[in-house]
């Protein structure tokens, strides 16, 4: 499935006016239903006015598994999302469901951006010039058994220190988010970090996983990341960017 020609700009994960970053996942079953759902979402959003000035961007990704869709939205604050949820969210979902029935909505969580890593300026232009599309996005959820957010911030700091000293080839950026308190319909897990990593492509990502490099041991920086005592597990999914919806100037 190729990305639509008018997919829109990639989001800036570190933009300072974002007070709440929401991530959710849908399961739709097949690559054909993925494409149909993307089209239905685009129709539902393009045919309606921008819902609220508090929504800064809404971004849609298709899983490489042929089943999942990831939704990432950036809000001025959590209250703006809750107002949208009460008054406008359902009509958009109903329009999508009428076009593609039996979508499974797997959960929604609210995060705040903590820190990001960017590949060195000497690497970025050459890597991006070789890309035929926006690349591969890998979202990793890391779980901790310590509820103190300082543990998660310390771990992220160690990861960024390791990336800066021994970066992965093909990794363009990594943006780390800390899960935040939510209302009842949001996730209540308060011991998680979400890493939104942007790679040049599948080959670069798979090469990094397969390489017998610093993450496998022998590097003191990556040893501290791997052996961090509060980290208890992680899961990941990879995606292709499909569409962004950005607040128009008239909505500000």
Automatic annotation (TrEMBL):
Q: Which UniProt keywords apply?
A: Monooxygenase, Oxidoreductase
Q: A GO molecular-function term, please?
A: monooxygenase activity
Q: Which SUPFAM superfamilies match?
A: Dimeric alpha+beta barrel
Q: Does the keyword Oxidoreductase apply?
A: yes
What residues form the membrane-spanning segments?
Answer: none
Q: Which InterPro entries match?
A: ABM_dom (IPR007138), Dimeric_a/b-barrel (IPR011008)
The UniProt record lists the ABM domain at 53-90
Question: Could you confirm whether the keyword Lipoprotein appears in this record?
Answer: no
* One family name in Pfam for this protein: ABM
Record protein name field: Antibiotic biosynthesis monooxygenase
């Amino acid at each position: 499935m190729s990305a639509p020609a008018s997919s829109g700009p990639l989001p800036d994960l570190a933009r300072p006016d974002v007070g709440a970053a929401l991530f959710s996942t849908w399961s739709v079953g097949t690559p054909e239903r993925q494409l149909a759902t993307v089209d239905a979402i685009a129709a539902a959003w393009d045919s309606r006015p921008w819902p609220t000035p508090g929504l800064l961007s809404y971004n849609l990704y298709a899983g490489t598994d042929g089943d999942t869709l990831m939704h990432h939205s950036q809000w001025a604050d959590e209250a703006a999302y809750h107002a949208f949820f009460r008054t406008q969210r359902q009509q958009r979902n109903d329009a999508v469901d009428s076009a593609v029935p039996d979508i499974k909505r797997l959960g929604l969580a609210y995060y705040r951006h903590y820190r990001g890593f960017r590949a060195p300026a000497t690497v970025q232009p050459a890597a991006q010039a070789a890309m035929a599309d926006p690349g591969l996005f890998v979202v990793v959820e890391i779980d901790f058994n310590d509820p103190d957010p300082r543990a998660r911030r310390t771990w992220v700091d160690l990861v960024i220190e390791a990336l800066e000293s021994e970066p992965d080839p093909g990794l363009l950026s990594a943006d780390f988010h800390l899960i935040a308190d939510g209302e009842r319909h949001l996730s209540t897990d308060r011991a998680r970090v979400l890493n939104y990593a942007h790679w040049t492509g599948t080959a670069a990502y798979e090469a990094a996983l397969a390489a017998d490099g610093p993450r496998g041991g022998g590097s003191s920086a990556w040893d501290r990341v791997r052996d961090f005592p509060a980290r208890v597990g992680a899961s990941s999914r990879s995606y292709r960017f499909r569409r962004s919806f950005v607040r128009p100037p008239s909505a500000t």
